[in-house]
Design goal:
Layout lengths: L4 H9 L9 E5 L7 E6 L2 E5 L22 H8 L3 E11 L9 E3 L7 H9 L1 E8 L7 E6 L5 E6 L4 H12 L6 E5 L4 H9 L3 E10 L11
Parallel strand pairs: 1-3, 8-9
Antiparallel strand pairs: 2-3, 2-10, 4-9, 4-10, 5-6, 6-7, 7-8
Helix pairs in contact: 4-5
């Protein structure tokens, strides 16, 4: 039976994690052109559309980091696009007063907004009410079918923090974010707003024309 990663992430947001047994399981996909490897401490999930995993180098596939072995991911992608390996963060989510963000269709051409449309569904592009500001948030149906945030700001950690806080103000339920480990400024901003690291995620796709650049 395929695992629902949304349930796994909801549990992780509440502090309940998969067993540390070195195992892996198949999970349901959530997007027609996106598949993924999601790893927690000592356990991994492969969200793939078929049973290709039976053809993988199983001696390298385990829940102790092996699921992210580049040879495993390359075999799964079969020549398609492979996104960067990201830290997977979760926030429990609790709507509060209005956060001050507004719809900003004028920022829809931004690379981060375009990336979100290729890899996620129901994408909204939000920003500050000041039309001169280019800070933006993408809010969409992303990893595991949960609400996913992407943030782009020209300021420092404090500016990013205020943008994330404003976005969280209108969200009920768990929120996920995928952040490149080397993007320390973004990691600090997400951690400062209550996101917690729960695992790692690497997205990939096998469909022609659905290639996506790395998100950082």
């Amino acid at each position: 039976m395929l695992v629902d990663l949304a349930d796994v992430l909801r549990d992780a947001a509440a502090g309940r994690f998969p067993a540390v047994d070195g195992g892996w399981e198949r999970a349901r996909t959530w997007h027609p052109h996106v598949e993924a490897v999601v790893a927690f401490t000592g356990h991994a999930y492969l969200a793939v559309r078929d049973d290709l995993v039976t053809q993988l180098p199983v001696d390298r596939l385990d829940g102790f980091g092996g699921a992210h072995d580049p040879r495993v991911v390359a075999a799964l992608a079969r020549g398609g696009w492979i996104d960067s390996l990201d830290a997977l963060l979760v926030h429990p989510g609790q709507a509060r007063a209005r956060g001050g963000l507004v719809e900003r269709p004028d920022l829809g051409h931004h690379p981060r907004a375009q990336l979100a449309r290729r890899m996620r569904r129901d994408v909204r592009v939000l920003g500050r009410a000041d039309p001169r500001s280019t800070d933006l948030v993408t809010m969409s149906t992303g990893i595991a079918g949960l609400t996913e945030l992407g943030v782009e700001t020209g300021g420092g950690t404090r500016s990013g923090r205020s943008l994330i806080e404003a976005a969280l103000a209108s969200v009920n339920g768990p929120v996920v974010a995928a952040v490149a480990p080397g993007n320390a400024r973004a990691l600090r901003a997400f951690l400062a707003t209550g996101f917690v690291p729960v695992g790692s995620v690497q997205l990939f796709g096998r469909d022609e024309g659905s290639g996506a650049p790395a998100d950082g």
